[in-house]
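Hey L., structure's done. Input below.
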Amino acid sequence: MTKRENPHRYYWTRHTDGEGRWLRTGPEEGMPPGADLANLRRGLGRNPGEVPEMWRFYTTLNREGKQTAQFLAEHHALALFALHQQSQARPMHRERIGLGTAVRQLRSDQGGDKDRIDPVDRRLAAAATATSLTELVLHLRGLITQLRGITRPLDYTLLYEQMLTWDWPERAAQTRRRWGSEYFVDYAGKKQSGLSSEERDQP
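Output:
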């Protein structure tokens, strides 16, 4: 991925520090207003630009109204972030927590047997093998709803960047490999990246 030139470009980074805390300075300080999140959730299952209430949240709009890859990915990331943040007091954007890592915790919390195929395995595999961005987002929506249920955050800037890859076979394949590595990596003797169960239980 390319270097992130503006760390506070996107809606989720304008409100959080990326480390599990709400920003307390600036024009958009603190937790996002519930009305903002409700407007963003209206974008679920809709095409970019179809929801006027979302227009002011985009950073990738263009004068021609073209649905660029960046515009599509940002639209879906905004809607998914708002879904994830619903009824959550803590930020659900957290840097360096990839999809595979987050979903691995979901599997663990549900008591999955590492030696058997688990329903969570199938859900992640369905997302990874999606043949279009629309199909991918549909599967992500189900996974993120479950992650919200265990208060497990996700790096939304990374997810946005990964959704950008979906029309490029080689880059999409790299994203799939990364999700698989995060999900199935052996953490024995290593400190697991992301949040510990103790951190997740903190208020």
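Residues 11-185 form a domain with the Peroxidase; domain 1 fold (CATH 1.10.520.40). DSSP finds nine helices and no strands in the chain.

-- N.
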